[in-house]
Amino acid sequence: MMWLFKDPVLAAACTGTWLPFLAMLVILIFTRRNQRLSAGISIASIVTSLICAIYLFTKLFHAGVPVQYEVAWAMTPDLYVPFGYLLDPHSLLMLLIVATIACLVQIYSVGYMAGDPGFSRYYAFQSLFAWAMLTMVIAPGMLQLYIFWELVGLASYLLIGYYYEKYSASQAGKKAFVVTRLGDIGFFLGLIFLMLGYGDLGILNINQAAAGHQIPGPLVTISALLIFCGVIGKSAQFPLLTWLPDAMEGPTPVSALLHSATMVAAGVYMMSRIFPFFAASPDAMAVALAIGTVTMLLASTMAMATYDLKQVWAYSTVSQLGFMVMGLGAGGYFAGVFHLTTHAGFKALLFLCSGMFIHEFHTNDMRVIGQSGGRNLKVPMISMTIGALALSGLFPFSGFFSKEAIMGVLAQHTNKVWLFAGLLGALMTAYYSFRLIFFVALPRKLATVPAEDHGHGHGADHGDEHHGNAYWAMAWPVMFLASVTCVLGFFQAPLEQFLTGGHAAAAAHGAGQEGAGHGMGHYVLLAGAIGCALAGLAWAWVEFGRKRAPQEGFLKKFPLAEILFARRWYLDDFYRKALDTLVYGGLTSLFTRNDRRVIDGAIDGICKLTVGTGRMTSFMQSGMLQYNLLVMVAGIGLVLLFFFI
Amino acid sequence: MASMELASFPILSTILLSTIVALLVIMLIPEDRPKLVKQVSLGFAALGVVLSLLVYVSYDVDKGGLQFVERFLWVQSIGIYWFTAVDGINAPMLILTAVVLFTGVLTMWELETRVKEFFALMYLLVAGVYGVFMSMDLFWIFVWYDVSLFPMYPLIAIWGGTRKEYGAMKLTLYLLAGSALILPGILYVWAVGGGHTFDLFELQRMGLPAHVQRIAFIMLYLGFGILAGVWPFHTWSPVGHVAAPTAVSMIHAGVLMKLGAYGILRVGMTLCPEGLGYWADLMALLATIGIVYGAFVGLAQTDLKYVIGYSSVSHMGIVGLGLATMTVDGINGAVFQMFSHGVMTALFFSAVGYIYDRTHTKMIPELGGLSNTMPVASAFFIIAAFCGVGVPCMSSFWAELLVFISAVKTYPVRGVLAVISLVVSALFMLRVVQKTFYGPRNERWEHIPDVPLALATPRIILVGILVFFGLFPRLILDVIQSAVVPFVSSL
Questions:
Q1: How confident is the model at residue B7 (pLDDT cuts 50, 70, 90)?
Q2: ipTM for the assembly
Q3: Which residues of B touch A181 (CB under 8 A)?
Q4: Which of A149, A291, A280, A145 is nearest to A222 (CA)?
Q5: Helices B328-359 and B304-325 meet at what angle, rounded to 10?
Q6: What would the pLDDT profile of B385-404 be if each residue is shown by its tens digit?
Q7: Taking the C-alpha atoms of A510, A516, A521 and A522 in order, what is their torsion angle to the nearest 10 degrees?
Q8: Is A195 within 8 Å of chain B by CB?
Q9: In chain A, what are the domain boundaries?
Q10: Domain span at residue B116?
Q11: Cα–Cα distance list, A98 to A47, A94, A305, A523, A634 (Å)
C-alpha cells in the first residue's frame, strides 16, 4: 500500500473511483435497513470523489503531458487488457463534470426521495453508477472504456426501473438496456476488428496511429463506423433515440444525472475521446454529421408536441446530443466538448427544477403545473428560466458560447446545409423551451386542462409534509447549477487552451477550423444564431406568452404533423412491429416449433419405433407352436444359406 | 515448500475417496436421523472445498504441466493405469465441483423425503464427476463418466417435479447414447495405439494416423457433446433441468454439462488434433447455431427452469465455439466459460429453487412482483441474469470476451452472428426478470418470507465467486492458460 502515499495523483484517482464502489457494497450488504446511514455513506463517498477530482484537476492543470497508470487486468499471449487511469485534460474535465453533477444529484435526492421505501437501494445504485461512470471517464484503453460503459448501462437500467412495481418503468428500463445493447454490439465488433487489425486499443496509441496514417484507411473507417454505433445507442441518436424519452420513468434526479448530464453524454464523450481516430476517416465523420443533424431536427419536432415537462427536456437532450455530434462530425473537437460541458450544467439544472415542480404538484403536465401556481415556487421558476435561456443559446448564459462555437464550426464546413439545419434547430429549441416556460409561468384560463392526472415520476406514496428541509436540500443544488450556468461561458478561452493545448492531434485539426471563425463572417453568424433564438422566443411569446395568447401551438393547425411528432415519427411503432414479427413471431416461434416437432418429434419417433419393434417381436413369444416352428425353419434355412453360398 | 510436501501426499485420491467415504457413512446413518445426514454431507462437501482450493492455490503456475501426479499400473495386460493429475484446465473444474456440491447441499437443507438416499446418490454422482475431472487414463475416464450418469435417473425420477419420469428417461437414454459413442471411440484409439495402454498422454505421444483421428474424434465429440448440450442434441437438457430437484439441477447444469465439454477437450482434442482440424468447422457451426437458437427459444418459454435450460444451451454453445477456434484465447475462454457458467447456473437454479419451494410454481405468468415480498431472493436471480447477459465485472464476461474475439478472428461470419445474438440473450433474460420479479405487489405471495440468512448463504457464496473472478480474472485465467498455451502449440 506504500505506493498510494508515494504518488498522491494515483492515490486520488484510485480513491475517487473506487470509493463509490465500496459504498455500494457496504450499502447493499450491511446498511440496507438504515436509510439515513446508507444515504450518508453514498454522499460521503461521492463528495470525496469530487474532492479528488478537483484535486486532480488543479494539480494536473498545467501538467501538459497526459499521466497514465496501468496494470494488467487480463493477459493472454494474444490479448492484453489493462486496467488503469489516463489523466489528460479531457478526462480531467469530464471527471470534474461527472463528480460535480453526481454529487449535486445525490444531495438533491435526499429531499426528493425522502420517505421512499427503497431509499437505500436508490443510493446503492447511485454509487454503482458513479463508480462505473468515473472509471469509464479515465479509462486509458478502449476495452476498459467499453467494460465500464456497459456497467453504466447496467446502472442506468436499474435506476430507470427503480419503481419496479410500475409496468411502464420496468418496461422502460428493459428497453433502454436492450436498445443501447444493440448499439454496443457495433461498438464491441468495432473494437474487435480494430484489435485484430491493429493490435492495440490504448486511447493515446490509436489516436496517434490513426492521425499518423499507421492504421489502414478502410480499417479505420469500418471500425470508426461500428464504434459510432455505440454512440448512437448510448447518446440516443437516430435511429435508436426512442429509449431516452421512455427513460424518464425513473425518478427525476435520475433523469437529471443519467439522461442529461452523464450517461447519455458518455457516447459523445467516447467519440471526442478518440476524436483524432474518427477524424482520420472523412466518411465516418460525414456519417456522424448527418446522423447528428437528423437526430437534432427530429427530436426538436418531438419536443414541440408534448405537454410532459420531463419529456420536453428529454427530447431537448436528444436534440442537443445530436448537436454535439454535429459539432464533432464537422471537425470541431473543442466545440463539441465545450457544448457537452455547458449542456451537462444547464440540462441537469432544468431537470432538477422540473423535479421540484413534480415533487410539489405530483404531475408532469406543464399545463396543470401552471394552473396550480407553479410560478409561486420562486427558486425553480427563476432557475428554470435561466436554464431555458442557456438552452436557447442566449447571451450571457453558458449555452450561448458553446452553441456559437459549434455554429462557427458548421459555418466552416463547405456544405452550408448543416449550418442552416443548425440555425433551424436553434429556432425550434427556443420555441419549445419557452413554450414550456410560458405554460408554467403565465397560465391562462383554459378549457383544455386535462382532467386526469398524468403523474409519472412518483405517485401518492409520497407524503406532502416534508417541505422545509426537503425543499432546501433540493433548492441548493439548483441554485448552484443556475449560477454555474450564468458564468461558465466566460471560461471558454482558458478551457480551450487547456483542452486543445494538451491534445496535440486535436489542436492540429481543430485550430484550423475554429480559429478561422473570427472576422466579418463571425459577426454575421453571431447575429444569425441569436436572431434565430430570439425569433423562436418571440414565436413562443405570441402563441403562449402574451396576454391574449391562445396557448395553442401552431401545430394544432396541422393535426397530421402533430400526430407524427407526438408519436415520435412512428419509430416506436416500427420497432414494436419489427420485434413482434421478426423476433417473437418469426425466429422464436420457428425455433420453438422446430424444437418440439422436428427434434423432439424425431427422438420420440425413434423411441416409438423401438417400442413398436419390441411389441412386434414380442408376438413371436406368444407360445403358439406354428409360429415357433415357422421361425425355426426360417432360421435353419438362413444358416444353411450362409454355409452353402 | 508446501507444494513439495503436498506433492508426495495423494491429495487427489483423497478428494475422490472422501466422496466415497461420505457415501458409505451416509448409508450407515439410520433412516430417522435426516439432520445428521445433512450435517455429514455438508461436512464432507466442505472438506472437498478445502482440499480442492488447496490444490488450486498450491498449483505452481510458472511450472505448469501436470502436478500432483499419482500414477501406477493397475491392470498390466491391457495397460490400465491409476493416473490422476491436475493441470490448469481441471484445477478450476475441481473447485467448481466442490463449490456446487457444497452450495447444493446447503440449498437442499429443507429436504424431507428420503433424505438419506438423496444425499447418498448425490455423493455417488459427485464421485463420478471428480473422477472424470482428475483421471488421465481413458479407462477410468469412461468408468467415472458412467458412474456420474447412473444416479441421475433415480435422482430425477424420485425427487423430481414436472414430467419427472419422462425427463429422467429422456436424459438417461440420451446420455447412454453418448456413452455408446464414447466407449467404441476410446476402444478404437486404444486398439490402434497397440492395445497396451489407456494412458491418455502416452496415446497422445504416439500420434495416431490421420484417418483414425477423424473417425475417433467425431465419435468422441458427439458422445461427449450430447452431455455438453451441443445443438441439435440438446433437448434432453431443458427437460431434464425442469424435472430435476434443485440441487440436482445445480449439479447437472453446473457441473455435469461441463463434463461433456471437458471430455471433448481432454480426450477428443488431446488425442485427435488432426481430427479436430477436420471437424472444427462443423463444431463451430453447431456451436453458433446453439448460441443463437438457445437465445431465441428461451424467449418463448414460460417456465423459469426451461428459460435457464435454454440459456444453458446458448452458453454452452459459447464453450463449443471457443474450443472450435483452436486458438489460445478461444480455449482459454471456453474453459473460463465452463467455470463461470457452472457457477452462474448453480446460482440460477438455487434462486429458482427457493422460489419454487415457497410458491410451488415456476410458471412465469403466475409469478410476478416477487421483488416486493422477497427482495433478497429475487436479487439472486437478477444477479445471475446479469451474469447471463454478459455484464462486465462478472466472470462470464471475460470468458465471452475471449471466445468472441477469437471466434471473430477464426470464423468471422459465425463470430459476428454469435456477438449479435447477445442482444437476444439480453432481451430474454430481462424479459424473465421483468415478468417474474417486477410489477405490482402480488397478494398471492404476500405471506412468503424472504430468504433467511442460512438459506441465503449458498447463494451469497455463488454471487461472491462470480463477482470476485469478474474483478480479478487473472486469478483464474493465468492458471487456465498455463495449460492451454502448451496445449495449443501441440495442436
A1: low
A2: 0.91
A3: 422-423, 426
A4: A280
A5: 170
A6: 999 898 888 999 999 999 99
A7: 60
A8: yes
A9: 1-140, 170-450+467-565, 574-644
A10: 2-490
A11: 12, 6, 31, 34, 90
